[in-house]
């Protein structure tokens, strides 16, 4: 058996450093390029790897360029691509039918939306793209669309392939010897390109059935007199409209096929086999650690796209094997974002995960100083030995981080030493779900002010768990004061050490909130007090019983996100003990815009996440409606970003976290991770000299003046050299912007101006100056 040995590895960093200054309003995509769906190689030797996280181009062994939505890609998850030699351009297809065309010279990107606009079909995915005689043949979920490769206009569309149903999905196209061969969801088809392909009678179609059900042909490859087809994961020869196995090879488990001159390459999950025209086979590459997705043969080289290792290149002798992967997160799955001390932590498992091939390696990521630390079974021996995956929820402390798994308990990592330990049902007393008490699902995890760890275990007999920092011991508690039909889910601990636990039932329907005060004796639940809050107007007044997000603002208020909007508790420390309905009922956000349709701000928005910046403004993420920035009181919308009006890569927001040092706001979406640089940052204890830039500020060139090194709440006055106050404004947090205009909205005259900032209590003052050029 021949195992892959990477003798030369290149990992190129294309991701900005957290510590590098970014401009206010700047967007960044942090993408994983590890899953390569399609490979195209130009005659010049440039290798285009189309991935779930965008495009990376290997121009030589030391130079990789990456393309994401920031650079103009329609979206990150590329399905298929092909290089057009005549027009020196890469044609890229996406799941929604949109096509991008990347000019190899200028690196500009055009968008073609003709297929996406086809209203008579619901599914428009692009499955394959081929170039033939300056035409682009595109296989879609409803037929074949042909574009002129020069002007990128539609020239033909073939929506009926022979006797197959109109609008049947075409999964693969091969163009050779003036003929077209297609694999469809119903079987195989072929025709001569010299015929009118609109005429169904010119097509020869061969339907295939298994137990009366149509069988799809995923790929077709024509080599001389041989026609090979990939049916599911089985490679077969098509002869006289009959499928037969190929002797000498394993026909099952095939993921891709390609050919070059007289050679045929057959890719399995962990090996590549060459098949000659006489059907003799030779294993070129084999490694059980591989997970192959796509291959390309060209110029006596084999190019391999993998599930999680990026691009691998080897020659036919397999003497030189090289791997290429731009640096970044391990996968494009993000959830439960947290930032502390400029370290970003994220898990990689979504809510209520289902089985997929990524599950064993769904670990967590740490991003610090521009470097990604990807921790999972493939990179960590402890996780591998415990079969620990599906990292679901997280807490990032000052000294340690904790990861709750969907099924495998709790992981603890020491941030200084990197040492990892795992608590599961066998070694901690944590109990799992009803069907399997060893399957420990951690829905929520957090620390209190004494660094004791608290965790909720889903569907458990003991759903409330404490790891005492002093005693180095676990304590487990049953349901506190609620019905057995109410299940503990998410957990948030406020500044008063109250535990806010979202509740759901077995059908994942929201059941409100449980607020718990653990009393003075944490290890004994007999002194615990609690209150359950619901959407009942006299007992919580939540906008909805399905609580999806909980956070605390700078004033100590608790903000609750639900599937039908947002509310806040102004006196959270009174909730458990109070009998006053005004203290235990949430206040909905009142819209200051009296002309709005609803008097309640963001009413009926399905909130997924919230975060508070240093100006006490609230970032609110939603399901399929993008992200909002609200003012501190929650009465008006400062910004609303969507995938349509900004570089936000998806409107489905899963989690939000803020780096308060840089102002960078991270958004985890269902398509990956993106960030935006916001204005507010941490305040300073002593202002003294303010940082003011750009300096000089030039009207018509610069748009805003940035003032940094501010106290928490300040009043800033702008003075001319004669001491006249020309403008003044308030600031919260350590940074603010000003447009350079005076009280009346006019430009200031050219000259030197002084900015004097005075803290709210009047005990601190900072001074800066700027040159303004009109």
Task: For this entry, give a set of tags.
774 residues, mainly beta, 8-stranded antiparallel sheet, 6-stranded mixed sheet, 47% strand, disordered N terminus
Give the arrangement of secondary structure elements.
Layout: E1 8-10, E2 27-30, E3 36-41, E4 47-51, E5 54-60, E6 63-67, E7 80-84, E8 89-93, E9 99-103, E10 109-112, E11 126-132, E12 135-140, E13 143-148, E14 154-158, E15 170-176, E16 179-184, E17 187-192, E18 204-207, E19 209-210, E20 213-214, E21 219-223, E22 226-231, E23 234-239, E24 242-245, E25 254-260, E26 263-268, E27 271-275, E28 281-286, E29 292-298, E30 301-306, E31 311-315, E32 321-324, E33 335-340, E34 343-347, E35 364-368, E36 371-375, H1 381-385, E37 391-396, E38 400-407, E39 410-414, E40 420-423, H2 425-428, E41 440-447, E42 453-457, E43 464-468, E44 473-477, E45 487-493, E46 499-504, E47 510-517, E48 529-533, E49 547-552, E50 558-562, E51 565-569, H3 581-584, E52 587-588, E53 607-612, E54 618-622, E55 627-630, E56 637-641, E57 653-659, E58 664-669, E59 672-677, E60 688-689, E61 691-693, E62 697-698, E63 705-708, E64 713-719, E65 725-732, E66 735-738, E67 751-759, E68 765-773
Parallel strand pairs: 1-32, 60-68, 62-68
Antiparallel strand pairs: 2-59, 3-4, 4-5, 5-6, 7-8, 8-9, 9-10, 11-12, 12-13, 13-14, 15-16, 16-17, 17-18, 19-20, 21-22, 22-23, 23-24, 25-26, 26-27, 27-28, 29-30, 30-31, 31-32, 33-34, 34-35, 35-36, 37-38, 38-39, 38-41, 39-40, 41-42, 42-43, 43-44, 45-46, 46-47, 47-48, 49-50, 50-51, 51-52, 53-54, ...
């Amino acid at each position: 058996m021949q195992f892959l040995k990477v003798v030369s590895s290149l990992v190129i960093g294309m991701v900005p450093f957290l510590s590098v200054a970014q401009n206010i309003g700047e967007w960044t995509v942090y993408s994983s390029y590890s899953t390569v769906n399609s490979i195209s190689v130009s005659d010049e030797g440039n290798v285009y790897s189309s991935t779930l996280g965008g495009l990376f181009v290997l121009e030589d062994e030391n130079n990789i360029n990456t393309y994401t939505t920031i650079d103009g890609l329609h979206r990150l998850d590329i399905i298929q691509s092909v290089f057009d030699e005549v027009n020196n351009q890469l044609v890229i297809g996406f799941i929604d039918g949109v096509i991008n065309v990347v000019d190899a010279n200028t690196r500009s990107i055009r968008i073609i939306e003709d297929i996406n606009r086809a209203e008579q079909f619901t599914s428009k995915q692009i499955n394959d793209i081929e170039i033939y005689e300056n035409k682009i043949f595109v296989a879609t979920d409803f037929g074949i669309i042909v574009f002129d490769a020069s002007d990128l206009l539609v020239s033909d569309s073939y929506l009926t392939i022979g006797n197959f149903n109109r609008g049947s999905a075409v999964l693969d196209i091969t163009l050779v010897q003036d003929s077209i061969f297609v694999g469809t969801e119903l079987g195989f088809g072929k025709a001569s390109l010299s015929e009118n392909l609109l005429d169904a009678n010119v097509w020869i179609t061969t339907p295939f059935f298994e137990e009366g059900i149509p069988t799809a042909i995923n790929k077709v490859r024509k080599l001389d007199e041989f026609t090979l087809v990939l049916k599911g994961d089985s490679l077969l020869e098509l002869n006289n409209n009959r499928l037969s196995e190929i002797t000498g090879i394993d026909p099952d488990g095939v993921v891709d096929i390609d050919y070059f001159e007289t050679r045929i390459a057959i890719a399995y999950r962990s090996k590549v086999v060459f098949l000659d025209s006489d059907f003799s086979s030779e294993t070129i590459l084999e490694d059980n650690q591989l997970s192959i997705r796509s291959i390309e043969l060209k110029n006596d080289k084999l190019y391999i796209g993998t599930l999680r290792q990026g691009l691998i290149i080897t020659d036919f002798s397999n003497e030189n094997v090289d791997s290429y992967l731009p640096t970044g997160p391990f996968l494009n799955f993000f959830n439960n974002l947290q930032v502390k001390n400029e370290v970003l932590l994220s898990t990689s498992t979504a809510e209520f995960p289902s089985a997929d091939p990524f599950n064993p390696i769904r670990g967590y990521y740490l991003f610090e100083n521009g470097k990604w630390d990807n921790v999972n079974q493939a990179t960590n021996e402890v996780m591998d030995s415990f079969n620990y995956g599906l990292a679901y929820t997280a807490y990032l402390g000052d000294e340690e981080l904790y990861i709750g798994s969907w099924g495998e308990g709790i992981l603890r990592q020491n941030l200084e030493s990197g040492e990892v330990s795992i608590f599961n049902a066998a070694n901690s007393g944590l109990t799992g779900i009803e069907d399997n008490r060893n399957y420990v699902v951690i829905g929520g995890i957090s620390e209190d002010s004494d660094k004791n760890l608290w965790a909720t275990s889903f569907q458990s007999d003991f759903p409330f768990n404490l790891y005492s920092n002093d005693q180095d011991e676990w304590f487990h508690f049953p349901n506190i004061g609620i019905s057995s039909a109410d299940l503990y889910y998410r957990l948030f601990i406020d500044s008063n050490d109250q535990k806010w636990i979202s509740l759901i039932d077995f059908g994942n329907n929201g059941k409100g909130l449980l607020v718990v005060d653990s009393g003075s004796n944490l290890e004994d639940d007999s002194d615990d007090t609690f209150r359950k809050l619901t959407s009942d107007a006299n007992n919580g007044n939540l906008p909805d019983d399905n609580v999806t997000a909980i956070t605390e603002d700078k004033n100590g208020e608790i903000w609750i996100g639900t599937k039908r909007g947002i509310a806040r508790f102004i006196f959270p420390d009174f909730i458990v003990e109070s009998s006053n309905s005004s203290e235990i009922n949430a206040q909905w956000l009142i819209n200051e815009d009296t002309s709005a349709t609803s008097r309640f701000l963001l009413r009926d928005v399905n909130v997924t996440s919230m975060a508070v910046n240093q100006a006490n403004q609230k970032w609110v993420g939603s399901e399929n409606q993008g992200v909002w920035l609200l003012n501190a009181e929650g009465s008006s919308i400062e910004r609303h970003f969507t995938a349509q009006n900004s570089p936000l890569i998806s409107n489905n927001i899963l989690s939000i976290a803020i780096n308060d040092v840089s102002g960078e706001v991270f958004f985890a979406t269902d398509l990956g991770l993106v960030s935006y640089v916001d204005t507010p940052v941490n305040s300073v204890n002593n202002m003294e000299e303010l940082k003011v830039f750009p300096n000089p500020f030039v009207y018509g060139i610069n748009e805003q003046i940035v003032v940094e090194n501010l106290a928490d709440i300040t009043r800033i006055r702008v003075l001319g050299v004669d001491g006249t106050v020309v403008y003044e404004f308030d600031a919260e947090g350590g940074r603010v912007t000003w447009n350079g205009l005076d009280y009346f909205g006019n430009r200031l005259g050219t000259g030197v101006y002084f900015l004097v900032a005075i803290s709210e209590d009047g005990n601190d003052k900072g001074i800066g100056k700027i040159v303004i050029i009109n």
